[in-house]
Design goal:
By secondary structure, the protein is mostly helical. The chain has one domain. 64% of the residues lie in helices and 0% in strands. Helix 1 crosses helix 4. 20% of the residues are buried. The model has no long low-confidence stretch (mean pLDDT 92).
Length: 152
């Protein structure tokens, strides 16, 4: 029974994530754009990392809900037009969202999760070619993980 409930929750999460994925990806790509010295969200596969991390059974369900709800709120605030905005319009939109307590907390969480993607061990699907580590002159941690996630 517990396995069936877990599978339903996973399917529900995946559906909700896919509905918000473009917004999450656009925000991460705005925060970590291509063309800078810092590796980009696209290069680092940050949105895929976000999905894989959040779908894990050990990921906090309240944070998961907050990340998804925050993306929905941003989309709603911008009447579904965030994705079509120019970079300067996205910057203004995110700065405006940041002035709210909720938006500020949400952007902070997205930044934290994106930084995790940037500096995680590449076994987790991000930090491609150790580019995040190389950017800050690090070799990562040792010992390196042998499996993607521990059974928690």
């Amino acid at each position: 029974m517990q396995r069936i409930v877990g599978q339903r929750a996973s399917a529900s999460f995946e559906k909700q994530f896919r509905q918000r994925e473009a917004i999450l990806e656009a925000v991460q790509e705005h925060l970590f754009p291509q063309g800078n010295d810092l590796p980009s969200a696209k290069t680092m596969k940050m949105t895929a990392f976000l999905f894989d991390t959040m779908k894990h059974a050990s990921f906090d369900k309240d944070i998961k809900a907050f990340v998804l709800e925050g993306a929905k709120e941003l989309d709603s605030r911008e009447k579904g037009k965030f994705l079509a905005m120019t970079q300067s319009q996205k910057e203004a939109s995110l700065r405006d969202y940041e002035t709210t307590r909720y938006g500020s907390a949400w952007l902070s969480r997205i930044m934290t999760l994106s930084m995790e993607a940037l500096f995680c061990d590449p076994i987790y699907g991000s930090n491609v070619a150790e580019a995040g580590w190389k950017f800050v002159g690090s070799d990562g941690g040792f010992p390196r993980p042998q499996t993607k996630y521990l059974g928690v």
